[in-house]
Each structure stands twice: as C-alpha cells, then as structure tokens.
Structure to design on (604 residues):
C-alpha cells in the first residue's frame, strides 16, 4: 500500500513533496522523489514486503522507472518464470517483479497479474508511460490530462488547483448515487482510470490511449453439480486467503457478525502457524452491535480477539477529518465506523484481511431481493402499475413513498435495478439516468437472469466506486493495508457461472458460502440476525448533527448546487426532522457535499 505520483509538469521538488505530504498517511515509511529527464516520479511507501530500503520507490531497471501502489499476490510464481527466462533479482519485493515483467512481456503482462494495483511505468528510451489499474478498482488511480500535460496520483487532493472547474455531470450523478463513479471525478479534466483498464501516454506525440484488458463477460452457466461447485469454490477461497497472507509485517483479520468475514478469518486461522489477530467494533446500541456473534466466531477459530466499544462521540470525532481522507464527495456513512475500526487495528497489525466482496458475487444484499420480488408484479400491465404507484400505500406500510412508487412504476427489471442503486430517490431537478448507458452499458447485456444483471451492476457501479473507495481510504488513513479474498477476480468469474439457485434459494442468500462455512463454524452460530456495519444516522441528523446540518445546508448553498431539486430536498429534510420518514441518505449526501466545499474552499 502506497501513494504514487508522476507528472510532466515543471515542478520544484518542494512542490511535489508538499503534494505527497498531503496524503502522507498512504505511506509513512518513505517519501522519495526522482526526476528522469522531464518526468517527475514520487512515491510514499507503506512497507509490507521486503522492508529493506532497497525496495523503496521510484524503482528503476534499465530504461524503466516505476511507481506502484498495491500488492501482486502471484508475484512469486511470476518471479520464478522470469528467473527461468534469464532474469535475476536483487530484492524479494513484488515491485521488482512488476517492472521486470513489463520489461520482458510488455503491456500484455498486466493480464498475468493477480492483485490489487495501480502503477505507472516510464520508459525513457521509447518516451512512453504505461499505467494500469486492477480489475476491480481496489486501488485508486487519478489523473489530470489536458493538451498533453498530465499529472497522476493515488488520490485527488494533490491534483487540486484553483484553475480546475467543477463537473456538473459529476455533481448530478453524485446526487443520484452519493459517490462519483469512474471515469469521472468532481472536476473537469481530472479522471479516474477505470478498473480493468490501462493508460498509455506517448510523450513524443502528446497523446494518450485507454484500453480495456478485463471486464465482466457473458458466461455460460456451469454444468457442475452443487457439491462439485461448492468444492471448487472452497478451494478457490482457500487459495485467495492464503496468497493474501504473504507479508513481512504483522497480519490480522477484521471480524464482524457476518458470514463473509467469518469464513475468511476461519480459513486464515486454519492456515496460520500461530493464532491470528481478529478485530471488531462493539456498539452500545444493540440494534447495531454484532460483537457477541464475532466473539463466538473468535472462540471457535481460536483467534486473539480484540473488541473495542465505540460510542457516538468517537465516531462523530472521525467526521472532523472526513474530507481530508475522502477528498472527493463520498456519502457512505459506514465509512465513519470503518475509519474507527482501522484506527484500533493499526495498534496491532499493518495488514488486515476482510470479507468485502462476498455480498456482491453471491447475492447477499437485501435490495437485490427486490429484483426477485419484481417478478410477481411484472405481469401487471405497466399503465396499471404506474396508476397503482400513485396510491399512498406508504402511509399504511410506513415506508417512504419514493421506494414503493419507484418499485411499482419501473417499466422492467433493468429500470428497477438502476433505481435500486440510486435509492429510488434522485435529488436532481431534471432526472436523467442516461449516464448509466453512457458509462455502464454492458450490465443490461451480460445475462438473461435479472438477479445476475443486478449483481453485475452492483459490482461495476457500487463495489468499484463505493465499497472499494470506502475500504481503501479508511484503511490508508491509518496506514493499514486491507486485503479481501472475495475480490480475487477468479472468485468473481467463477461465481458468475453458478446458477442463481446455488447462491440464492427460497429466500436464503449466499447459500453456497453458508454451506462452506458449516465446515468451520456451527450453523446455529452464523444464522443469527446480521445487523450490518452501520451507524444511527437517522437519529443523529435529528440530534447531535442537526444544528450543523441546518447551518451548512442553508438556502444559499442549496440553490448553488447544480441541478438540485431544492424544494424536494427541503421537504425531505423537514419530514425527516419531524420523524415521518427516513431521508438520512439524501441529507447526508448534501451535508458531505457542503463539508467538501468547505474543506477545499470551493463554491459552485
């Protein structure tokens, strides 16, 4: 885990150092800046493998110079292959394997990598820069590009300058989602390299080329029996856990009440020569507390378990520095307890395994169940459903009117899927979901099965742009490296070949994962109700945060936000404060946007 930087700007070393220091939490072990010809390379290192300074970056080999963030989990296999091709190695790091692999195989080398990575390699002889980002976007990659001038970095903050213009398109999508998906950022001319893509820059012609090397594809459903599929998946997960346990620093595992982190921790414990360290947060409010279940898991797998009781004051304290870490508007409130969890974890370990990614591939989220339920109403003519959606059932059912209306008025499953991931509740004055077809056209075409399409869209939109962002920034804020075996692309590819019934059947989510977990933990333990990693945001908005929210979300600010339906938002805010409905996500989106504008001294 590190921070990378590369530019052809004419900068003094002090300027680059200042930029890197603004995200120094990404790599506190070493800061290094090199200039090769007109190119400046900078790197922040969090040492995980080969702690010796010989593995510091920028790292050079022949005419190649690299800045690299992440981990290549299969680097030992690639290293052996390169040795058989005549290469020798001076370090035991994956950085040296990466640069020599590129020197030997060229751009195609990226498809051989299994890991989480974002890197840039400068070839000073050919005058080329080659960059790549991992398949699922676990590691971030930002770049500025305008008329051949470019600047690359692991986070947005070092790229911000007074000449940048706000992207109104990005703001509108943020009002839909609560985050800004790749390739966009909040600024014009600054972009995210999309997951599974490479960026090639020709310094001689001042041109760039973006190419896709991996994506979700249409697949044939496997003919494996359930038992055979379970056995193969189990072996894949074991391997994914084991290769993520490679480290020259202390390693542990996050452990919640969920089955994904339980399975990862159980496998890690079984394959570790010493008891592993596990970490969980306990909440005073039983509606959010999973610590008792996590403690049961820990006792069964024999881990050294650390439980930290957190109170609202501790979590709200994290809000003070939220926009320093999440340097682009980001409204996932579970980022706050994630920050706290990583803070306590850092006291004991530098690397932590996690269960992130299991819900996406194995249909674990409740909102995906809406797609399954839609089958029951899809036979009703659309005109009738649309008319029914206007009847105020929500008053009787106690749910938000937008949710029921959005469900009944969806033309088909694809429209429902899009609404699910915008919370049925766009805050845009002019509602326009054409951005989905513009940036994510493939999700409608990859499967005939609606639940699989929903899972695919979940991976491409939410996992890559929300979950992975949350985990990367929260862990990096405290210089912790988070590794998730369920984000191994081999598991995701395999899961997509499984029949839906192997993953979801008779209302049981993640069926095949549950059956694997039975081999480690008794079923009666892990079938206890899951609470989710959340905070009581609903109540906080009416309580501890109310005054600051009302102050920040004043009329002047609200009317300045591009395309915001101010009247709709103010109505939602009022109904939330009166405790009629829960509009906490809508309010949180605008509140975080206001905090971000304040942090960067930006007005729309």
């Amino acid at each position: 885990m590190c921070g990378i930087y590369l530019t052809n700007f004419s900068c003094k070393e002090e300027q680059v150092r200042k930029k890197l220091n603004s995200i120094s939490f990404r790599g506190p072990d070493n800061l290094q800046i090199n200039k090769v010809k007109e190119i400046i390379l900078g790197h922040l290192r969090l040492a995980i493998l080969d702690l010796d300074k010989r593995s510091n970056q920028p790292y050079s080999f022949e005419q190649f110079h690299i800045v690299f963030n992440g981990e290549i989990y299969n680097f030992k296999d690639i290293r052996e292959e390169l040795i058989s091709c005549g290469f020798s190695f001076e370090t035991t790091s994956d950085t040296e394997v990466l640069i020599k692999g590129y020197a030997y195989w060229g751009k195609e080398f990226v498809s051989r990598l299994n890991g989480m990575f974002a890197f840039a390699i400068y070839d000073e002889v050919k005058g080329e820069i080659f960059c790549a980002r991992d398949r699922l976007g676990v590691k971030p990659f930002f770049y500025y590009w305008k008329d051949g001038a470019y600047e690359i970095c692991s986070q947005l903050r070092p790229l911000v300058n007074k000449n940048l213009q706000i992207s109104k398109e990005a703001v509108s999508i943020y009002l839909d989602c609560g985050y800004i998906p790749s390739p966009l950022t909040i600024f014009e001319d600054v972009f995210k390299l999309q997951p599974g893509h490479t960026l090639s820059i020709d310094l001689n012609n001042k041109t760039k080329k973006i190419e896709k090397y991996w994506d979700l594809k249409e697949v044939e459903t496997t003919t494996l029996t359930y038992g055979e599929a379970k056995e193969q998946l189990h072996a894949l997960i074991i391997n994914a856990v084991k290769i993520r346990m490679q480290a020259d620093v202390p390693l542990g595992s996050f452990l919640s009440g969920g089955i994904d982190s339980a399975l990862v921790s159980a496998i890690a414990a079984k394959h570790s020569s010493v008891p592993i360290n596990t970490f969980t947060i306990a909440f005073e409010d039983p509606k959010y507390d999973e610590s008792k279940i996590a403690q049961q898991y820990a006792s069964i797998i024999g881990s050294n378990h650390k439980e930290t009781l957190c109170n609202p004051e501790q979590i709200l304290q994290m809000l003070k520095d939220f926009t320093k870490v999440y340097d682009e508007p980001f409204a996932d409130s579970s980022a706050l307890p994630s920050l706290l969890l990583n803070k306590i974890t850092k006291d004991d370990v530098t690397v932590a395994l996690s269960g992130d990614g299991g819900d996406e591939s194995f249909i674990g989220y409740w909102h995906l169940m809406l797609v399954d339920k839609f089958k029951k109403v899809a036979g009703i003519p659309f005109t009738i459903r649309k008319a029914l959606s206007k009847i105020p059932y929500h008053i009787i059912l106690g749910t938000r009117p937008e949710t029921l209306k959005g469900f009944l008025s969806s033309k088909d499953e694809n429209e429902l899927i899009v609404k699910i991931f915008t919370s049925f509740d766009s805050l845009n004055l002019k509602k326009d979901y054409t951005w989905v077809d513009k940036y994510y056209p493939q999700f409608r075409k990859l499967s005939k099965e609606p639940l699989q399409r929903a899972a695919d869209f979940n991976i491409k939109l939410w996992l890559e742009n929300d979950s992975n962002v949350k985990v990367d920034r929260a862990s990096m804020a405290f210089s912790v490296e988070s590794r998730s075996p369920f984000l191994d692309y081999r598991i995701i590819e395999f899961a997509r070949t499984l029949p839906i019934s192997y993953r979801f059947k008779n209302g049981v989510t993640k069926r095949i994962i549950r059956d694997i977990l039975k081999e480690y933990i008794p079923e009666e333990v892990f079938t206890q109700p899951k609470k989710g990693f959340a905070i009581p945001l609903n109540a906080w908005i009416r309580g501890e945060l109310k005054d600051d929210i009302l102050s920040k979300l004043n009329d002047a600010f609200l009317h300045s936000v591009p395309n915001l339906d101010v009247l709709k938002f103010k109505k939602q805010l009022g109904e939330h404060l009166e405790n009629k409905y829960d509009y906490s996500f809508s309010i949180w989106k605008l509140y975080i946007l206001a905090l971000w504008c304040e942090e960067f001294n930006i007005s729309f």
Q: What stands out?
A: Residues 1-210 form a domain with the Glutamine Phosphoribosylpyrophosphate, subunit 1, domain 1 fold (CATH 3.60.20.10). The longest strand covers residues 64-72. Confidence is low (pLDDT under 50) at residues 393-397.
